Amino acid sequence: MHKAILAVTLVLIASAGLLLYFFHGERQIPSAAYSDKPQDWIGQEGLLRKIDIDEATDGKGYEDVRGLQFREEGIETVFDYDGLYQGQYFKKEFIDSEEKMRMRITSEMSPANGIIEGFIVETFEDGIPVAHIFLDEDWKRQLGDTYIYWGASFGQSRQFHFTASEGGIYADAITDEPERFEKAYKLHRGGIIVGDVTPQKLEQEDTNITIIKLV
């Protein structure tokens, strides 16, 4: 891909060129934080599987128009979401030119409706930031191998494990990088990216990627 096109695409899809770290930054593969608890946060309402944010954050978090709010003694912050569908930017939903929904960032998922769905809940466990990631069956079927990138410069990474599941929703978790937070967690740099950004796509600088991002 022409370098100019790559540069413009990166600026458009990741404010301040954050995805440049994918192609030029160093990445580490640290140990991950695993837990069976996230499966208990997934409830059912009809055909929907709902992630209980209140339960996931022990009553300290909620979602509103600004994003995912977290309030605890000594910690007050908000996380926002956006994503890419095959390289095209979207905020919470991607609808194609035929008015068909292709992808959503949502805590309410329908695992077999043909729409790629995912969600990230950031919590603080004993003062340590932990990101719980939820992807549906459509994600696994359509995207396959999925990777997580996180940190102040997205410098840490590992593959998402499609092992722990509940009703077609897969749950995984990583210990976030405390150093990316400042001023009692009110400010944070970098974030968490989950998508089909494989080592092969990184090597080829392929921007035709599908991701969700929490910042």
Q: Please count the helical segments.
A: 5
Instruction: Label the overall shape.
Output: globular
- Order of strands across the widest beta sheet? 7-6-20-19-13-14
Taking all residues together, what is the mean pLDDT?
85
Q: What would you call the structural class?
A: alpha+beta
Main beta sheet: 6 strands, antiparallel
Helix share, percent = 10-25%
Return Rg in Å: 16 Å
Short descriptors:
215 residues; alpha+beta; six-stranded antiparallel β-sheet; six-stranded mixed β-sheet; 20 strands; globular; disordered N terminus
What does this structure look like?
Helix content is 15%, strand content 42%. It is an alpha+beta fold. It has one domain (3-214). The strands form 5 sheets. Strands 7-6-20-19-13-14 form a 6-stranded antiparallel β-sheet, with no helix packed on it. A 6-stranded mixed β-sheet has the order 8-9-11-12-16-15. The protein is globular, with a radius of gyration of 16 Å.
What's this entry about, in short?
The protein contains 5 helices and 20 strands. It has 215 residues and is of the alpha+beta class.
Give the secondary structure arrangement, pairings included:
Layout: H1 3-13, H2 20-24, E1 42-45, E2 48-51, H3 53-56, E3 61-64, E4 67-72, E5 75-79, E6 81-85, E7 88-90, E8 93-95, E9 101-105, E10 108-109, E11 116-125, E12 128-136, H4 137-143, E13 147-151, E14 156-159, E15 165-166, E16 169-175, E17 181-182, E18 187-188, E19 191-195, H5 199-204, E20 211-214
Parallel strand pairs: 9-11
Antiparallel strand pairs: 1-2, 2-10, 3-4, 4-5, 6-7, 6-20, 8-9, 11-12, 12-16, 13-14, 13-19, 15-16, 17-18, 19-20
